[in-house]
Amino acid sequence: MNTASLSIAGLRKAYGKKEVLRGVNLEALPGTVTAILGPNGSGKTTLMRCLLGLHVPDGGKIHVMSEDVRLGPAYRRHIGYMPQVPGFPENLTVREITRLVESIRSVRARFGHGERLGITAFLDQKWKTLSGGMKQKVNAALALAFDASLLVLDEPTASLDPASRLRLMEALREEKARGKAILLTTHRLDDLWEISDRLVFLREGKAECVAAIDVPGMGSNPSLFERHVAGYLEETVHESDAEAAV
Amino acid sequence: MMTVLRFCLRDLLRSRFIAAYFLFYLAAGYGLMNYAPSVSAGLGALLSLVLFLVPLCSLVFGVLYFHQSRGFHELMLAQPIGRRSLLAGQGVALGIALCAAFAFGLGIPTLWFGFQDGGDARLLGLFLGGGLLLHLSFLSMAFLIAVTIEDPLRGFAAALFLWLSMAFLYDGLLLFLLTFLADYPLDRFIITAILLNPIDLERILVLMQLDASVMLGYTGAIFRRFFGTGFGIFTALGALVLWVALPALAFLGRLARKDF
Question: What is the count of structural domains for chain B?
């Protein structure tokens, strides 16, 4: 019996002739934070979208809490998802949005972390009146509100102010301590050092290496870890330079 | 599906577009029915407006609404709900909102003035009912376009092209063929051609109930012989229902392999 909260085996996905994922294997264990890294276009978003059922994979298997994702949407009750760009119907209030998600999941939301993030102050505000940061807080609160076993977070701190970022990190540490498996993508290295246990590098459509972090800044396999982090940073810097030049 | 429908409908009924759509029809309906010399003349003028605006608004708003809901689709599809339930709920909510704005906006003045002048219930029913079916059929086509064409701009352009084709080009082509093939018996061809365009169906259905139909000449006689009967009306309404159902089924079929 597989104890992993998430198990991906041989995942393949192509857009036309372009193969984005070429047999990705990945596991997320309970009580761990797995960060997915890779340069732009390496397939991070595609991997997450396949896991969430947004994209239809061309091959491979995905199991969430031992449930095959091909068997229907019911497995997603185990997932709490926080996208990078949140979107809800503009004229609904945060309270109504919460009711909508509650109705679909048939579970009452528990806003312990949401209160800490301060969303109770704007429960009766319409979605269109919220700022980007406020929307991101609502999404974080909703992702954490249903006691999901697997949290999937796409750039979770991208538009949060420093205080909210710290609160979210604290909430994620608590969830991790409660045995939740957390899968995140981020370009912020401070997020990685703070909470990640394992780093997965996606390069040319494959999960090339899994490095376990024991102490911030140190890998369990230092040479491998340094090579990949150094390579990743170098590519990121080159991309930024190229974008700046354009 | 019902949960998504309920909340999306609540959102749409608060939107400015739906309010403006309702107010526009109310003002146009009141203005044209109030100043027209008869109920028939008022409905004739309103028919031109409906045939022009309903397909355009349904197509454009349907495509834009689908693409603007991408973030919502992404969030909802990460919940334990199927694609078809989500998108069907959203589509039905949009259909109800547009139809409600149309039915109340035009329904209030046309029924008010129509029954004051002892108007024909069948005429009013076909005018309003046909308008509702026209909304739903073009909304189905809009969602089919949106799910087929990824790029919102290209989807928008395709919606405009479809509207242009069905509202103008189709009739132009039909007229050309009728003139070109005037020496041949064309009864079946004309009726089939009308059944293949929902805008023409609504136009003929209403015109056949108006006095103006006698001015349509030879083709008018063909239309009157078929669409003026109970069977013809039933066939036309059935064709309009098919124009709603077929694109909707094609849309739902495409969802299974769609990457959101």
Answer: 1
Q: Does residue B90 fall inside a structural domain?
A: yes
Residue range of the domain that includes B71: 2-255
**Interface test mutation site (partner B, options A104, A153, A155, max chain B beta carbons within 10 A):** A104
Domain A6-245: CATH architecture, name and number where available: 3-Layer(aba) Sandwich (3.40)
Beta carbons of B79 and A87 less than 8 Å apart: no
Domain boundaries, chain A: 6-245
User: In this structure, is residue B31 part of a structural domain?
Assistant: yes
Q: Which residues of A touch B17 (CB under 8 A)?
A: none
In this complex, the residue of A77, A89, A99 whose CB is nearest that of residue B11 is: A89
8 Å CB contact of B259 and A52: no
| ipTM for this prediction | 0.79
Smallest CA–CA distance from B1 into chain A, residue: A104
DSSP string, chain A: ----SEEEEEEEEEETTEEEEEEEEEEE-TT-EEEEE--TTSSHHHHHHHHHTSS--SEEEEEETTEEGGG-GGGGGGEEEE-SS----TTSBHHHHHHHHHHHHTS----HHHHHHTGGGGTTSBGGGS-HHHHHHHHHHHHHTT--SEEEEESTTTT--HHHHHHHHHHHHHHHHTT-EEEEE-S-HHHHHHH-SEEEEEETTEEEEEEEEEETTEESSHHHHHHHHHHHHHHHHHHHHHHHH-
**In a domain? residue B260:** no
pLDDT in tens, chain A (246 residues): 568 889 998 899 998 888 888 888 888 889 999 988 887 778 888 899 999 988 989 999 999 998 999 888 999 999 999 988 878 999 999 999 999 999 999 888 887 766 777 788 888 999 999 988 889 989 999 999 888 999 999 888 888 888 888 888 889 999 999 999 999 888 777 777 778 888 888 877 777 655 555 444 444 444 555 555 655 555 555 555 555 554
